[in-house]
Request: fold
Amino acid sequence: MSDNDTLGDNREFNVSALSDVTIDFVTVSKTAADDTDTIKYTNVRGAVKAYALRTDKTIQIVSMTGVVFTDPITVLINKSHTEHFTNGIVTKMVVRILTTNTNIKLRVLQR
Reply:
């Protein structure tokens, strides 16, 4: 693995309400300090090529990079959901919070 393969970010945040939350990987002018209840920012500053998503309650991934899934991806409690792409292609992810006070842990790698 080259140095470029290890660049990325680790985010942990709590979502208190039932909602859809957008995780934005590419907006350069925003950081975690700009987070709102429904938009979370990372310090990645570019498309993501791999991620690991963990949560303390079941959630769903409903879209990535503007593509809404026919059937959401279910991320189970305390089980890591990971995906790897040849190139960095994920710019945004929308997760659906199904239970109040859900803690999200997200590790992302960029190219």
Observations:
- Residues 3-100 form one domain.
